[in-house]
Design goal:
Rossmann fold; 36% helix; alpha/beta; 8 strands; eight-stranded mixed β-sheet; 8 helices
Length: 223
Amino acid sequence: MRTIKSYVKRKGRITDGQNLAIKNLWSKYGVDFKKEILDFPSLFCNENPIYLEIGFGDGELLIKQAQLYPKINFIGIEVHDPGIGHCLLQIENHNLCNVRIISHDAIEVLEEQIGNTSLERINIYFPDPWPKKKHHKRRIIQLDFLDLLYEKLFSKGLLYLATDWENYKEHINFSIKDHGKFMSIQYHEHEGDQAIDRPTSKFEQRGLKKGHKIWDWQLRKLI
């Protein structure tokens, strides 16, 4: 796949508590990147369905959904240490046994660690919109990326997307149509009151305060 990164790994401010969480809790909840397919039943000690969230930020939605669905196993991918540290603290504080975290490029994780047809659902909430036209090539939602997601989902597996940038909404809609291998089950334009099977987030509320609308998709993999 393309080598253009959909993120820039900035050195964000990280607290002492977040640093300690990475140091002390990674061995418990973290999954190191390796070029080998993960054995999910061994990783979670059960055979529950797997949901993957790409770019979980500070883990707010990941944690809320893991609490709501204890019989679902969640894997979150993120590259920014402050968010990873915060999420690890929340996993420990809520005593969640159904969450694991990977700190690495999502495309490489999907290619090397996630088996084909192994995921029941993939969530991508509010990915970096890269609003400048010259940066649109960095957007993670591209045709080759949709191909990769398609490969990893079960038959009729689900893909959930959300953004608060109108231009990115248009890009996503064109990409879904051009790709042609996902069927739209639900599509909502709303003001924070019609999120599709997900809690609302602080990030979402910040977008609404700026006057943005919210767009949510529920897509199903076509056989």
